[in-house]
Amino acid sequence: MTELRDIAVDEARDEIVRVGTSLFDRGYVHASAGNISARIGDGHLITPTDAALGFLERDRLALVDAQGEQRAGDRASKTLTLHRRIYAADPTARFIIHTHSTHLVALTLAGVWSQDDVLPPITPYFVMKVGHVPLIPYHRPGDPRVADLVTARIADRLASHTPIRAVLLDRLGPVVWGPNAAAALAVLEELEETARLWLLTDRRPGPLTTDAIDELRTTFGAAW
C-alpha cells in the first residue's frame, strides 16, 4: 500500500507541475497568484505559498496528511483550508485550481450577472461544462471564513441536484474542481472564455431560452 501511495504522490506531483506550466504559458496565471492541489487518498498535495505556478519544482510541493499536518515540501499555500474543505464537501473533487484569471477578476469589478450565477448561460458549452457559479464576497487571501461560504454553496447545490464545479471569489478569481486535472482545466477554460465573451459584448447577451436549456438537460444531462 505504501508503494502504491508513493506512486500516486509522484503522479500527482507531475500533474500539478504540468498544469501549472500550462496555465502560465497560456496566460491564466501570473507572478505568484493562484494555487493547485490534488487529493491523494485521505491526504493532499498542494502548491507552496507564494509559488509561481509556471515554475513549480515537483519536490517542493507540500504534502499534507488527513489531519492537515504538513509532511513534506515547502510551506503549503495559505488557501490550504479552502482546498481541504472543498474536498470534504464534494467527494467527486480530486483536483482543484485557483487562478486570478484576468476576465473573471474583471467581471467581479465590472459587475456579475447575479450573486448565484456570475454569468448568464449564454452558450451551450457553458451550461454543459461549467454550470452555476456563485459569487463569494470579498475576504482577504487565505481567510478561513471563505471555506465556510464555499462549502455552504456546495451543500445547497447538492441538495437541489445541481452540483457546482466552481465559485468566483470577488476580486480574487475562480476556484474550480473536478474528478481529475483535465476536468478541472475544462471548467476553468470554459468559465474564463465565457467571461471574456460577455465582457467583450458589453454584457448585453441574454441567457439561452428555457427550452434550449431543457434540451441540454435531456440530451446531455446538463446539471442546470
Automatic annotation (TrEMBL):
Keywords: Lyase, Metal-binding. Residues 14-199 form the Class II aldolase/adducin N-terminal domain. InterPro entries: Aldolase_class_II_sugar_metab, Aldolase_II/adducin_N, Aldolase_II/adducin_N_sf. SMART domains: Aldolase_II. The keyword DNA-binding does not apply. The keyword Metal-binding applies. PANTHER family: 3-OXO-TETRONATE 4-PHOSPHATE DECARBOXYLASE-RELATED, FUCULOSE PHOSPHATE ALDOLASE. This is Aldolase. It comes from Streptomyces endocoffeicus.
